[in-house]
Amino acid sequence: MADTAHIAFREVPYLPLKLSVDRRADGTIYLENGQPLKACPPHMLAPLVKWAAEVPDRIWLAERPKDGGEGWREVTYAQGLATVKRLAQGFLDAGAGPDAPTMILSANAIDNALIKYAAMWAGSPVVPVTPAYALLSEDLGRLKYIDQLIEPKFIYVEDGAAYQRALDGLGVDGRVVIFGGDAPEGFDAVRIEQFGRSPGPEVDAAYDRLTPGSVASYMMTSGSTGEPKAVINLHSMVACNARMIRSVWDEPRLDEITGGAQVMCNFLPWSHTYGAHSILHNMLDWGGTLYIDEGAPTPARFPAMIRNLKEIPTTQHTTVPAAWAALATELEHDQDLADTFFSRLVCMAYGGASMGQDIYERIQAVAVRTTGERISLSAGYGATETAPTASNVHWPNDRMGLIGLPLPGNTFKMVPAGEKMELRVKGVNVTPGYYRNAAKTAEAFDEEGYYCLGDAVKFVDPENPERGLAFDGRTAEEFKLSNGTWVSAGTVRVQAVAATGGALSDAVVCGLNQSDVTLLGFLNEAWCQRLVGEALPMDQLARHPKVIEQVREGLKAHNAHHPNPAGRIARILLQPIPPRADAGEITEKGYINQGRTQDLRQADVAKLYAAAPAAEVIDLGK
Questions:
Q1: Which residues in the chain land under pLDDT 50?
Q2: 434 and 246 in contact (C-beta within 8 Å)?
Q3: What does each C-alpha distance from 154 to 92, 99, 193, 197, 487 come to in angstroms?
């Protein structure tokens, strides 16, 4: 791999870094960004009105035709505003309001966005639900739980026939069902094209009633512990979060570099805060153009992702580490893709999980080969409760694993917790609590009103806080071995995945009250198929000698550098079945739910600790 550290970065027009550090006698540290928060719109609809007036013909949203054909269906800002107002009138006519939420069951799509903003315009909070809960779940358990908690008056499904089982399971008596695609059977429903009405004065009145304190949405957590919680998202939280991110940019200079409009092509699901806010809404706030990527870093959808990125030169690219890992391999082998991908790119970013340094180095090697420059690859950090971005790396960056520094508008509080520092946050982007769950709301905040994120962080350089914070593990995911040694599951997971050179996409770290650390390993299917030279299914890849050897040698090298019990890996069992989102094993951020996955795969965990390991267990020796 080429050494690119001496190559200059392409210009990233960040404002000068400023940081306020307040250290207290008890060891608590408060951090604030010294840049001021830029003026925030009063609610999430204001940017749509602004851009429809100022750049009416600019493309707001684009998607591939549903039949898989060439080209893009495009909606301009003017067209988008007109349709949102028509749909808002339909919502108002049907009884929309703060006590009449709208459930959205849909993949990312233009109609999904139009329904979302129209419902909010009419005053109805939206609750986007991951489609897996409706399409993949055997008992619809989580979908029914969310339905009973929220009690939506409106349900939008992108295809009535595809969601027939879900609608039947929920029951639709007394509700308004809006659908796209084929009609559901057995009850009255209205097609989205017929739901809209010519907007009257009540549409303008509904817009005027929106305030920063109005509820925009109930965003569901991933349910990593227990059932999902409904995070109250106020309009102010999401509207200001976009401005928090923009407050560290020199925007006039950015406009000069990009030609005045931001462009993204992105797949991150809008049923999760990352895709809904950091992508969909932030691009609206920028007045940018969002190409909706129907692809994803899975074998079935990856070709579509590459097709789109090969066609659309973006100015920013933000995604999860699993997608970056898959993209790195493709960039190395497809120069036409690299030429388009790096042509207009100002910055790259990841979030949702830590990313290995090796992926960064591979991407930069292609960037330098293609452009002669490095392109900053930074990280963002936050939670559903912070709408979502609380911090990011807002300086040219070549080190993975950072979470950056707090953005303008919120304050970080680092509290001593044993040998680590627990992170808490307060600010304009933080939720007031969980819908209909006073007990969990009370548990989530400390005595000063700071939201407790459940993560540990540390300064990269304690003598120079301006170099940023690094993730130091989930406080809930740390555990002790039987000898009393503390293990940071997050640290071991990232190191182990990186050590295999691309063979693993993720891992579950086991060992609570055991003598050794072991792993349940999840393969990077596309990478492993290239390694073995044929498109084998996952169950065959997990037992293939070349894959086993790659994993074995990578983890043995890891153990040579981490011989202590807290970092050394004794055994690994490669999983033939990927983690299931509908079962709660993997969140929409793209990271593994460590505890849930171990609970559901207890038989495999038992194999890791059997006195005589089964043949499929890779024993790394003592």
A1: 589
A2: no
A3: 11, 11, 16, 16, 46
- How would you class 270 by CB atoms within 10 Å of its CB: exposed for 0-12, middle for 13-18, buried for 19 or more? buried
Q: Is the pTM of this model over 0.70?
A: yes
CATH number of 76-210: 3.40.50.980
- What are all long-range contacts of 559-566, with beta carbons under 8 Å and residues at least 24 apart? 559/620, 562/495, 564/485, 565/481, 565/483, 565/485, 565/487, 565/516, 565/517, 566/481, 566/485, 566/486, 566/487, 566/488, 566/492, 566/517
Report whether the peptide linkage leading into residue 128 is cis, meaning its omega lies within 30 degrees of zero. no
Residue 165: partners with Cβ closer than 8 Å, 6 or more residues away: 134, 140
The pLDDT of residue 419:
77
- pLDDT value at residue 443: 95
Q: Which CATH class is domain 481-619?
A: alpha beta
The tokens for 164 are 């027939």
Domain with CATH 3.30.300.30 in the chain: 481-619
Query: In 3-state terms, what secondary structure has residue 489?
Result: helix
Query: CA gyration radius for the chain?
Result: 24
pLDDT of residue 1: 54
Q: Phi and psi dihedrals of 621, rounded to 5?
A: 75, 175
pLDDT of residue 485: 84
For residue 201, give Cα distances in angstroms to 45, 194, 207: 17, 20, 10
Residues of CATH 3.40.50.980 domain(s) within the chain?
76-210
Residue intervals in the chain for CATH 3.40.50.12780: 19-42+235-474
Burial 549-575 (b: 16+ CB within 10 A, else e): ebbbebbeebbeebeebebbbbbbbbb
Contact 312, 263 (CB under 8 A): yes
As given in the structure block, the two tokens for residue 162 are 């595809």
DSSP string of 101-169?
Answer: -EEEE--S-HHHHHHHHHHHHTTPPEEEE-THHHHT-SS-HHHHHHHHHH--SEEEES-TTTTHHHHHH
Query: pLDDT tens digits for 96-106?
Result: 999 999 999 99
Domain 19-42+235-474 has CATH 3.40.50.12780: yes
